[in-house]
DNA sequence: CTTGTTGGTCAACGTCTGTTGGCAAACGTA
DNA sequence: TACGTTTGCCAACAGACGTTGACCAACAAG
């Protein structure tokens, strides 16, 4: 052995190549059609290497969608354009890499993927809503409403590719969605 | 031959049993995991019957998701609670059978499914927006925004099963979403 | 009764899947 | 040099998949 803790291994390049290929394939094809053989081909290695480094397909998927939403701190401004900040942040997240697309595509047909999405909601989205909502008891409902709008837009824009949704500019999306999110999180119950 | 046009065939019961089983499986499992063998087992017939009646798996899927959204006529009331009417109508559609769940689950990972969703949007949703929007040129964008909210909610409630989204009552959902849809369709551009 | 059509089963095909174990080369250390 | 470990490839397994064609039973028409 060359070291005690997390020494750089000679195979790190291969490991990350596998992970990158896996994210691409999961994002493009979903869980079933993203075969280990295809991922290995993209990474230019043998399929058996995937098994050695990630155990099995589920392990590979778990490693591929390990992400942090980096939710913004509670907004400090006088009152809320929290909606604007949040919508912009999610657009950034969705466009900076394919992890979220992969997660959404897989979550729809795969148990583990759906579970991971629920986890992200509970551990990273809900806390933000708890700080912004007037009544903490309403936070889960309000957060879920906001998530539904953001997920729905991402679905139409990055997965189903509805032409009008794809054609909108980022700024247009922010201007349209921000008031919705703002209302879901902070407005008085209808 | 017993008749000239669309005579009742002796195999109609089998045909509809296959279709019902197919909708269930597609809704529960998505395209790949809904195997013809499993569908045939549910319908208590041989897999080869599916091939004979629907040609191949794609043909079966096409037959299984042939649906009409039955969009309501342009609302006659003084001004709009079009939002309320539309949200309630979509909740009805999603809950009356599994076709829409099947379509969403498949559309996310299957080309034909996504294409069918775009078709439904263009042919059945867009016309409604054209009647309700102030400026017809904005109708596609506004309709797409409305679709994103409705699809997002359905995703959370019927597919991903986010606990807070599942827990909401139909009336709660209508009260929260209706103003959003109303604004997307009719309010002045932000 | 005979005959053609329809409804249905059975067994098999070729292909693709995730996964496994063995073997060879490259490497780090002594 | 010698030796254990890491990295990688190759070939194969067993199971599941969509799909096919041969075959049998029930029926309707002459």
UniProtKB/TrEMBL annotation, chains A, B:
Highest taxon in the source lineage: Bacteria
Domain HTH tetR-type: 12-72
Keywords of the record: DNA-binding, Transcription, Transcription regulation
Record-level Gene Ontology MF annotations: DNA-binding transcription factor activity; transcription cis-regulatory region binding
DNA-binding region: 35-54
Alphabetized InterPro entries for the sequence: Homeodomain-like_sf, HTH-type_TetR-like_transc_reg, HTH_TetR, Tet_transcr_reg_TetR-rel_C_sf, TetR_C_16
Gene3D superfamilies, per database record: Homeodomain-like, Tetracycline Repressor, domain 2
Protein name (record): TetR/AcrR family transcriptional regulator
Organism placement in taxonomy: Bacteria, Bacillati, Actinomycetota, Actinomycetes, Kitasatosporales
């Amino acid at each position: 052995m060359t070291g005690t803790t997390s020494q750089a291994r000679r195979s790190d390049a291969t490991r990350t190549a596998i992970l990158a290929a896996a994210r691409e394939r999961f994002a493009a094809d979903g869980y079933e059609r993203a075969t280990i053989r295809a991922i290995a081909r993209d990474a230019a290695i043998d399929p058996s290497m995937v098994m050695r480094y990630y155990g099995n397909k589920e392990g590979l998927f778990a490693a591929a969608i390990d992400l942090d939403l980096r939710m913004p701190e509670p907004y400090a401004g006088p009152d809320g354009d929290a909606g604007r900040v949040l919508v912009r942040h999610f657009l950034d997240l969705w466009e900076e890499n394919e992890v979220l697309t992969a997660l959404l595509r897989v979550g729809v047909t795969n148990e583990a993927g759906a579970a991971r999405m629920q986890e992200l909601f509970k551990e990273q989205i809900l806390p933000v809503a708890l700080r912004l909502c007037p009544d903490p008891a309403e936070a889960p409902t309000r957060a879920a409403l906001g998530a539904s709008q953001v997920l729905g837009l991402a679905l139409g824009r990055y997965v189903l590719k509805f032409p009008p949704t794809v054609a909108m500019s980022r700024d247009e999306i922010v201007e349209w969605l921000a008031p919705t999110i703002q209302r879901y999180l902070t407005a008085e119950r209808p």
